[in-house]
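For concreteness, we quote verbatim a single protein encoded this way:
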Amino acid sequence: MNRVSPGLSGVPRPARVRSWQNWARTVRVRPQQIKVPTSVPALQRAVAAAAAAGLRVKAVGAGHSFTGIAEAPDVLLDLSRLQGLARADPVTGQVTLLAGTRLHAVPRLLAPYGLAMPNLGDIDRQSIAGAISTGTHGTGAAFAGLSAQVCGLVLIQPDGGRLTLAEGHPLLPAAALGLGALGVIAEVTLQCVPAFLLRAEERSESLETVLGCLANRVKEADHFEFYWFPHTDRAATKTNTRLPGGSPRVPLPPLRRWVDDSLLSNSVFRATCAAGAALPAVVPAVNRMAAAALGGRDYTDLSPQVFTQERTVRFRESEYAVPAELLPSAFAGLRKLVADNPRRRVSFPVEVRWAAADDRWLSTAYGQDTAYIAVHRYYREDPGGYFAAFEALMLAHGGRPHWGKEHGLSAPGLAERYPLFDRFLQLRDRLDPDRVFANAYLDRVLGP
């Protein structure tokens, strides 16, 4: 996206307007204006000016959501120049980041203070504001999603004013996962922990073996997840154990990491996905080879190096959260769904993770320990039938869709799944009565 230079007044000039699309290529829009504020005051002025002109405003970070949650028909605020550490307190472990800060930059910013985020997802390309606003999470039955790490926010309101929500503020649990509906996030304060290491054990295992002792493995591990390769009876498991920061590091050798994470998991996988799209009949054989190849690694490294992976193969994704106790039934239903449609060949593995209950009003884990099932399709394939069947299955198990991933629910269906949904709408009416921060996606999921 084109950058801009601040004018003499300090207000950023609009970038040359052109179309914007998200990473997955599922959303494309041509905004009336694109602005790139270079400071929080400039962000305030940009919001106020748009609202005064009767224009809707949406902030964009990395564009990594698969839904239209960041689609901005009127004014797109590119937060890429609002990155960095505003302040840090190594005693309390609280750090404040500018909203556009990318997750992959956070470890470097926290390192001088000996701090780390308690948990991360497996992708770190998102901005911190986008990640918390859509409900990004990692895995670990005792660990909640990223929005639960938020202990303070600064929200820019329609008139350009700052709404500061400090730790303990009654509205923080709503705004920390606010879908961009309550204001534009300018700063995020996170509760961090002392830097730690993770010992990773990655295996290729029989799926039946994994499922047979699943409850114990999830309970006993700090962070457990598995990937099932459709059309096979194999799973790739990853078990991460937390170690003190002073523990010895035993990282993967650079060549092994490059072969596994760049060559096989990206370059070769991209080629096999393209081949599967062209010749679906080869997918089962390819999946069997992939399932056998993954795993067999043990290493110990800094937590961000273990939690996250580089993914360059473009895909589309749908993910649902279900009550943790219903995971076995939901997963069995997904296996049957795949087996009952032999003509549908699925090259991407199914990802299964866990999270602890939290108090964020619109969190998929609000009030309940949660398991997540994520399904994917190569971006050149039509996910329609697969995602629709998956969604119906998850809804039958009390599922809640990930806000940043593809789903078909609208406000009435979502209201049934979130005890504080109506309360959130009332807060939205109070903070944004004129719907300055609305777009088509929010009209669908929250109501116009």
Observations:
- Residues 1-15 have pLDDT under 50 and may be disordered.
- The two ends are 30 Å apart (CA to CA).
- The first strand starts at residue 20 and ends at 21.
- The chain is about 30% helix and 25% strand.
